[in-house]
Hints:
A: four-stranded antiparallel sheet, B: 9 helices
Amino acid sequence: xxxxxxxxxxxxxxxxxxxxxxxxxxxxxxxxxxxxxxxxxxxxxxxxxxxxxxxxxxxxxxxxxxxxxxxxxxxxxxxxxxxxxxxxxxxxxxxxxxxxxxxxxxxxxxxxxxxxxxxxxxxxxxxxxxxxxxxxxxxxxxxxxxxxxxxxxxxxxxxxxxxxxxxxxxxxxxxxxxxxxxxxxxxxxxxxxxxxxxxxxxxxxxxxxxxxxxxxxxxxxxxxxxxxxxxxxxxxxxxxxxxxxxxx
Amino acid sequence: xxxxxxxxxxxxxxxxxxxxxxxxxxxxxxxxxxxxxxxxxxxxxxxxxxxxxxxxxxxxxxxxxxxxxxxxxxxxxxxxxxxxxxxxxxxxxxxxxxxxxxxxxxxxxxxxxxxxxxxxxxxxxxxxxxxxxxxxxxxxxxxxxxxxxxxxxxxxxxxxxxxxxxxxxxxxxxxxxxxxxxxxxxxxxxxxxxxxxxxxxxxxxxxxxxxxxxxxxxxxxxxxxxxxxxxxxxxxxxxxxxxxxxxxxxxxxxxx
Lengths: 248, 256
């Protein structure tokens, strides 16, 4: 469904993505793992068009996203949702305003209808009665939930997750993993997550891909990856300081 | 020596780069201004922020400037026995020059810095990116309403500053310094015509665009967390003030 072909990107001469090749299957959860600073965020930002590649293609149903005109691109973006690392809620709007924002911008639904959908999506992520609260009044975990509700409010086909469990406690991290599984299974959505959280990866991933030095070095199903002898992957999955990946 | 020229070259390059990006942002805003859907709610919100909420500070500025002008010009004109020209001096200075420029500088300090801070925070907390990923153009949603607010509110605020300045000048000239009220008002009407006020308002229109464009540009291009947001606000204020003063000279020489 999404095909990334030989994607390259440098910033001020520093190569970040050095020919990434990856295919993402429809209706599955693909988790991209890798150390901090390996370009995971840069990769996910390319998938949703926030960054333009130096070369390479990102095909969605065969159409190259990097070459689309604005109107066509906006139509494609409507098929996407994204949960940012810090949730990226608009702090000038209430929770309901945030979650309902894409609906208000892209549909002709009345305020009442939007409110109904917003409440339903919030309930789906386990939040009730928070519609009129401001983001500043929410805890970190609640923000992530509201961010997820906003990401799925347009019933997107593809949802991207930027480090969904970074900066939250382990119990909350597990509940976010459960929530991702529940929402994905219920809606049969394609989820793409980038993380360095191995527990999360084992719990939710249908497919795992490891990004290292600007390339996907290994990819496959979780069980295959667990058995994979590649020392890079072994070191990362076991969380060891000893191995081919140097600590810097 | 070589290093000096290298640095000069880099500064020139960065100046051209920034100017080009700002012109592109302005062109995009002008394009979206005429393409529906219009973000009326956002526009009115920004108009309130730039206009209504700046009223107090511009009234204060206008009043004291008019009062000081009356006192200073009285002091100078008295030496030639031309005290009756205090009224026109105050009114002309306010309408053609001080009203628009001081209003613009005050609004830069109050609203320009706040805009750069707000947009800068939205940038570093990925709110602008989030908007983009929802298929909403951030320039249309965030920049256009601010520029519209700037170009409509600055002339209106300048009118208020002009008026309050003239009233302040009148109070000092007539009530404190004892100029005949009839002479004061009569001479002011003789010397000041509508064109003088229109010149000032035209300047304000451009200042409104400069303030909001610079603040939006700095906010949009913020990098580096909280420190970056602070830098964006400072840069927005400094760059706006410099551009206001330079463009004031250029517009004055064009309209003279």
